[in-house]
Amino acid sequence: MPVAEEVLGASGTLSVVVALPPSRPAEGRCLLVCHGLPLTRGGGRTAAGTLPELADHLAAESGWVVASCSLSGVGDNPGTFSGPHWREDLSAVVDHLVVAHPRLWLGGFGFGGALALDHAADDDRIRGVATFATPVDVAAWAGSPERFHASVTASGAVDRAVPLDDPETLAKGVYSIEPLVAVARVPPRRVLVVHGADDPIVPVDAARQLVSAALGHAELRIIQGAGHWLRSDPRMVATLIGWLDRNR
Predict the structure, then answer these.
(1) pLDDT band at residue 219, thresholds of 50, 70 and 90?
(2) Is the pLDDT of residue 9 over 90?
(3) Taking 90 as the threshold, does the pLDDT of residue 26 lie above it?
(4) What per-residue confidence (pLDDT) applies to 110?
(5) What CATH number does residue 71 fall under?
(6) Contact 78, 13 (CB under 8 A)
(7) CA 55: distance to chain centroid?
(8) Which residue of 34, 43, 125, 176 pairs with 112 in a disulfide if CB–CB is 3.0 to 4.6 A?
(9) pLDDT tens digit string along 174-212?
(10) Whole-angstrom Cα distance, residue 107 to residue 33?
């Protein structure tokens, strides 16, 4: 059964759900799955909604402990989105989990994948990273500061008690995340890059660029006919489980 835990993040208490496998878990191995920031109306608020269910399924099928988290402004968590806040949140969750699960791996969807690479580049405790539909040019994904500010507002990842940063500050906080630079610093640790062939939001070439930058230490899986939303795609789940099995 999944276990709910609390972690103190940038804006207050964060929700972390840890799914345990039914059999004895692979010793110390844990995958932390991070949501992205869907720039659609209401998307930010519900970004982590199905992650606990996915984590529970992955734990049952892989034998790994699988954790999921909600970052500032998402779900019932306090706070408002910003790049620095989400970086701080992810770092706090990693610090919490690694005590009980020293062999910690990260996975992230969309912008969450960029965040996972960014963290792993500077944290040798992370054993590997899996990304799903992750942009390599965060500035192009976000758009102009004004457009990004409007999109984040519409996404709902905003707490009325914590105002959203002004457009320039908000954009600067995410533009500074450079997935191609980060992924080059992850090897020799393992990297899995998964992308939908028909992704209309992040071009599939982004996946190929990530793999190239990982200098032979990344596996590429392009899912034919898939778009941007890979979380519920059974082929993505099978790909991830296979990767976890090979890295037991």
Answers:
(1) very high
(2) no
(3) no
(4) 97
(5) 3.40.50.1820
(6) yes
(7) 13
(8) 34
(9) 999 999 999 999 999 999 999 999 999 999 999 999 999
(10) 5
Hey, how many other C-beta atoms are within 10 angstroms of the C-beta on 212? 14
The DSSP secondary-structure symbol of 232 reads: T
Q: Helices 51-62 and 234-246 sit at what angle, rounded to 10 degrees?
A: 50
One-character DSSP codes across 51-115: HHHHHHHHHHHHSSEEEEE--TTSTT--S---HHHHHHHHHHHHHHHHHH-SEEEEEEETHHHHH
Residue listed under structure tokens 């059974």: 234
The total domain count for the chain is 1
- Token pair of 239 as six digits: 């790909």
| pLDDT for res 171 | 97
Nearest to 222 by CA among 211, 207, 210, 201: 207
Average pLDDT of the residues of the chain: 93
Ramachandran region, residue 94 (left: φ > 0; alpha: ψ -120 to 50; beta: rest): alpha
200 sits in which H/E element: none
Question: At residue 25, does pLDDT exceed 70?
Answer: no
Range of the structural domain that residue 124 is part of: 3-246
Strand locations in 120-240 (E) = 126-132, 190-196, 218-223
**Tell me, what's the pLDDT at 208?**
98
Of 203, 209, 161, nearest to 182 (Cα)?
209
**Do 124 and 100 touch, CB atoms closer than 8 A?**
no
Three-state SS sequence of 39-68 = CCCCCCCCCCCCHHHHHHHHHHHHCCEEEE
